[in-house]
UniProtKB/TrEMBL annotation:
This is Sulfatase-modifying factor enzyme-like domain-containing protein. Pfam families: FGE-sulfatase. Residues 442-683 form the Sulfatase-modifying factor enzyme-like domain. SUPFAM superfamilies: C-type lectin-like (SSF56436), P-loop containing nucleoside triphosphate hydrolases (SSF52540).
Amino acid sequence: MLQFLRQHAVSLLQHYGTRPLLWNTNGTAQANWADGYIPLLTTYTKEDSEAKGLRRIAAPKAPRPAVHFSALEMVQQNRFSLFWGERGSGKTSFALDLALNLAGEQLRHNEYNLKNFIRPIPRNDQNLVQVESWNLPPTWPVYAPVHPQDHWEQFYARIEHLLEHDNCLLIVDGLENFFNPDEVLNELEKLYLEQDGLRLVILANRFLCQGLHVPFTLAQFSIMELNAAQQRALSADTPVQKGQEARPNLVVAANAVGKLADGEATSLAVADIWLDNAAPLSVRKELQVVITAYWQGNRQALDQLPQTLQNFFRSDFAQTTLFPVIAAYALLDMEDDARLATLGSDLSLWRRAIPFLVTLLQKRQQTIVPLTRGLLSMDDPSATGLRYGANLVLQHLQNDLSIQQLCRSALLNFLQHDASTTPTKNEVAHMLAALGDQRNFDDLICIPAGYATLGSDTHVNSSPVHTVYVKAFKIGRFPVTNSQYALFVQQTAHTWPAFNTLLPAQANIPAADVTWYDAQAYCAWLTQRWRKEGRISASEVVRLPTEPEWEWAARGPQPDYAGKVCYPWGPQWRSDLCNSSELGLNKPTSVGLSAAGRSLFGVEDMAGQIWEWTSTLWGKDMAHPDYTYPYCNDGREDLNAPATIRRVLRGGCFSSPSLKANCSYRGSLEPNGFWRGNGFRIAVA
């Protein structure tokens, strides 16, 4: 067994150790992994880690810039992890850096070893630098790239003999290439559960893996683009400016080019310089034909290029950075109908050329309206054409009211179909927000009076299960959104940390970073406003729901399921119906994305998304409530209790697992505490 792992480690170093990672603009090699790798960060932050438990905030009002964990750190913290990233995000570079240095450590290699993992990383735009390192015992790496349309049996046959040792790390690079990724995830979970000493790392393109059913045992992380401090650390003259893409491949390409003479720092301008250096204009047409054929699956096409260019154009760097630009030039020479037919033939592939094609069309002063209308009308469950078409409307056709209305209708129609995945619908909803989401976020659901079942025997703080009579009331169909809360802030000058950073596309996500006192102030403001508008009577008030009201609205008449929690839609967990940690987004989504995930009363987003404030007191200890179950009239609804007494939060959030993102789990936080995973919804009574 050890012999096989040693042979694999030797092969890794021989095959990849000297392979170029960085290239010069003339197509010659510049640096390998040991010299050129840039450590990657994930979207997972220290604050997210703290919020996994019922943490205490020492200084709630103090600013807390996000401090991101690196991908290497997440591999060490989780024995079974999945990393999402687009083409060019650095997934394969990360995988090979990990594999080469682990292999080199085992073989006592001079260039590749664990010392390479000791490196400072700017953890945010503010340049907070922290060192990452490898803190686990040395382990044998098994690097396993996935071949296109691989079946699990074929893949496993290639690596089975390497996994018999009890100390190895399996790196599966390219989940999207499997014929059946869902089956593969299930098989990999079996390996994880059966072999205690095995650590697994899976790398995948989220766009190409939409709709996967990810096991709850699998920790999911998204790879970030390079932050501003990382870009500045590479070069003070980095031409990639804020607003441009900052994937590692593009930043590195821009650095190699240096400062552009005309100051145009677009990805297209950078790629053009590379192409001008690597391939003279006289062979550009030939290059377009060759690269397009290769891109569409003809692996022998590159053999037609001069030998000096073949290695460069076979590299991941060229294929992620230059191929989409070359494809855009090929599309530019087509008529509208042929162009749309080519795009539609494999939109998951050709989509990467669309932004460059648009720039080229505009440089020729040609209209992009036919392209936009064609994309908006493409019918596919992943909404690829719709999303790219909507981007064109938002970026280039802001004065065309007719196409804006066409786009808005297409986006809204897509959201009303439950067949698509939550991440896809979330992207569509963000675009709708940027255009103007006209859904009624003030909508109230009437909750009838009744005997509410509260609690669950699955957690001591939620026990015992009991019933409480709840009077009729109304509750917000959605959590309070950014657009609603921002109006309150504008009219009252109320302090809100998130206010100055909001983007139009975030208008329809739940308002977060909101204290209990902030929520109370919003309710008081809305009470006065709605009374003036005649929406509520003089005797009605807008307020936070009590804990029994919240659970009654979320759970409805569902009984207790012994030994199990229940969810708004019923007793069976479904990861596709809510935004919990199982979804892997690690951020709030737009509200109202899953009709099937509504409560039995029709209330939306009550599992996952954000922790929601209630009016009910918890106590001073974050782990053990003073106000225990059964719920009773013992002063726990005192609105004037001191700030040292925590209030109950309900519903879980985007980083909560299913055991917390449900109808019965009780969370808590100091009333002046806030973070990006807590908000609220209103009640009217």
